[in-house]
Automatic annotation (TrEMBL), chain A:
Domain High-affinity branched-chain amino acid transport system permease LivHM N-terminal: 4-104
Keywords recorded for this protein, A-Z: Cell membrane, Membrane, Transmembrane, Transmembrane helix
Localization annotation: Cell inner membrane
CC annotations in GO: plasma membrane
Pfam assignment, any one: BPD_transp_2
Membrane topology annotation: Multi-pass membrane protein
UniProt keyword annotation of Transmembrane helix present: yes
Keyword Transmembrane helix: yes
Protein name as catalogued: L-leucine ABC transporter membrane protein /L-isoleucine ABC transporter membrane protein /L-valine ABC transporter membrane protein
Automatic annotation (TrEMBL), chain B:
GO process terms (BP): amino acid transmembrane transport; L-amino acid transport; neutral amino acid transport; organic cation transport
Protein's recorded name: High-affinity branched-chain amino acid transport ATP-binding protein
The organism's place on the tree of life at top rank: Bacteria
SMART domains: AAA (SM00382)
PANTHER family xrefs: HIGH-AFFINITY BRANCHED-CHAIN AMINO ACID TRANSPORT ATP-BINDING PROTEIN LIVF
UniProt-listed Gene3D superfamilies: P-loop containing nucleotide triphosphate hydrolases
InterPro entries: AAA+_ATPase, ABC_branched_ATPase_LivF/BraG, ABC_transporter-like_ATP-bd, ABC_transporter-like_CS, BCAA_Transport_ATP-bd_LivF, P-loop_NTPase
Recorded GO MF terms: ATP binding; ATP hydrolysis activity; branched-chain amino acid transmembrane transporter activity
Domain ABC transporter: 2-233
Pfam families with a match to the protein in the record: ABC_tran
Family listed: Belongs to the ABC transporter superfamily.
TM region(s), chain numbering: none
Amino acid sequence: MQRALFPALFAAGVTFLLTCLVIGVRLEQEGPTLTVVGADASTWGWIAFAVVVVFLFQLFQGPISRLKQRIPSADATGLLPGEQMRNRLKPWLFSLIIVGLFVWPFMVSRGAVDLATLTLIYVMLGLGLNIVVGFAGLLDLGYVAFYAVGAYTYALLSEYFGLSFWACLPIAGLLAATFGCILGFPVLRLRGDYLAIVTLGFGEIIRILLNNWTSVTGGPNGIGGIDKPSLFGLEFSRRASEGSQTFHEFFGIDYDSSHKVIFLYLVAVLLVLLTIYVINRVQRMPIGRAWEALREDDIACRSLGLNPTVIKLSAFTMGASFAGFAGCFFAARQGFISPESFTFIESAIILAIVVLGGMGSQFGVILAAIAMTILPELAREFQEYRMLMFGGVMVLMMLWRPQGLLPMKRPHLELKTS
Amino acid sequence: MLRLDNVSTFYGKIQALHNVSLEVNQGEILTLIGANGAGKTTLMMTICGDPRAHGGHIEFDGQQIQHLNTSDIMRQGLAVVPEGRRIFSAMTVEENLFMGSFFRGKEESEEQLEHVLELFPRLKERYSQRGGTMSGGEQQMLAIGRALMSKPRLLLLDEPSLGLAPIIIQQIFEIIEKLREEGVTIFLVEQNAHQALKIADRGYVLENGRIVMSGTGDALLNDDSVRKAYLGG
């Protein structure tokens, strides 16, 4: 108790200072002068209450955590079916989820489908960054740059050359991968903090370039009127453009704008499934092992004849290409892009998804992406306190589950010994 | 098989190796002994290309390798067990061994895997256990096993006895002798001079970055100055 007293006093003091400055006093303008106005009595009451709560919590932290340990945690493993059963159920469960993903949009509102599409974009970005950060252990703070490259590739090619979404999708991936490779070459000899700073710089360079190269990218005005993807040449607009046909005319149904939303959603689902499949395969290939080995011990890797630069570069390139795909799809969905969409905060959110989900764990990253996009939407009614709640949740998360929602469980590699 | 000719190595301005020349012959155990800071590990790392040799030549199987990248050198048919084991602790024994045979074909690596598991039955017991959860001796066996997975003709061992109990050291040295019988050439860097010289065919003594003495294992073991300096009188 004695030992806890000083930290408790300190924490209470910090709480008091912070709340005083943020809530307790206000600047108010009276004519030309600014005056400091104190808060009313009830606010001060709340501040005092908060300070007392923090003080008591810090003081009794030891007993509280001991109490928590004594509460028996429910053993849920018994509820799960046995190992063999689980392995047999797995493919069924996966197919059920996939069928659900395809059927679901026809039953819910347009807004929900739209939100789901956005979530899927973040899932794709999270999975892509997971390769770089989770598997290869390279901290990349400029991931959004590759996202921007993908988006602008489609926007510019469609504006200047009239290329379709489906033609641009691989080009965007390739171009983003090329950028990843170009950036990777000089920076991959750096590690840790230095690498993070350089990638951060790269992200900003791309954004500022897009912002200032007005003659090509339109600068801050962005690019608008980007074509939506079509289904084998069938458009989802009310009226067909020259020489093509619309979806509703071809099938002889009435025009409904939700068709387009659902179609975009389905495209996103397909892209995400493809991403998951590819990454899963790659993770089990020797190169996936090499990423992991490199993350663990650089010197051991070199002693085994692996070339760290090549391995890092491959992770960087591959992660970037998925950001390119996501960017291309993002441009098609929005129909309008500007450098505003590719600020540093986007990179931070994607990184938060990866860390929150548990680095290297694909399922965790998917869950975290869903949580990170849907929770802020649900919390809209809290208005400006939204970000405060968001920050609070992150802090609690790091306290209770620092390893992420679902930490990485590594697939076993089977070498047959006969 | 491996020849160093007047090799000098620098860390910045500090010279760690002064014109070192030595030779490892096919099929022998060669040991390099010396006190802390004599440059033993530096010498081994220089062979691997990190740090790079400033002067002189390093020849492996008649081919100069001092200008190659570390990763390329390591694919020439020599393998190193680095100081402090450096196994991949979050990976299983199986995966650690797999990383060793990264550049070998599937059949070749399966064959070698069987062989390594035969040499180290302990690894077979721990086959799907994570490397980091094993004891120091088991980790050392894993490190040697992993290096052997690439089917090296020359194995460089950097202080394999570091931090191990005498009985485990005994086992490790027995395995080293067994490897020689199989035709693997071994270059052993050791602090544990007594045991190293006992199994070695030849030995070199390194002092302050210079080779000061060389001879057969027995001759060095019985040499007065070596006894005084490294074997405790």
